[in-house]
Amino acid sequence: METGLTFLMFTLAYGLCFLSFYPERYLKKFSYKYSHKNIPEYKKFRLAEPMFFSFLAGYVVAFAVLFLMP
């Protein structure tokens, strides 16, 4: 139970850390349709990929810290 909770907290912490390093310019959609319309700015961002890869990297680092280091 303690290991699982620690693994979850480390995954969340490392995932948010990696997400904070992700540059904003890569989050924008590179589409003519979205960049030349009068739509709200928050709809021009694509957050699924950065969040997935950030939390995947956080999961891998948390696994390495908890299970490979000791």
Shape: elongated
Distance between the termini: 18 Å
Oligomer: single chain
Unreliable stretches (pLDDT < 50, length at least 5) are: none
User: Helix share of residues?
Assistant: 55-70%
Number of helices: 3
Global mean pLDDT: 80
Q: Topology as H/E string?
A: HHH
Percent of residues in beta strands: under 5%
From the alpha carbons, calculate the radius of gyration and give it in angstroms. 16 Å
The domain tally reads 1
Outline the biggest β-sheet: none
Structural class call reads mainly alpha
**How many DSSP E strands?**
0
Structure description:
The chain has one domain (1-68). It contains 3 helices and no strands. It has helices spanning 2-21, 32-35, 48-68. It has 70 residues and is mainly α. Helix content is 64%, strand content 0%. Keywords: Membrane, Transmembrane, Transmembrane helix. The chain crosses the membrane at residues 6-27, 47-69.
Brief descriptors of the model:
70 residues, mainly alpha, 3 helices, 0% strand
Q: Mind sketching the topology for me?
A:
Blueprint: H1 2-21, H2 32-35, H3 48-68
What does this entry show, briefly?
With 70 residues, the protein is mostly helical.
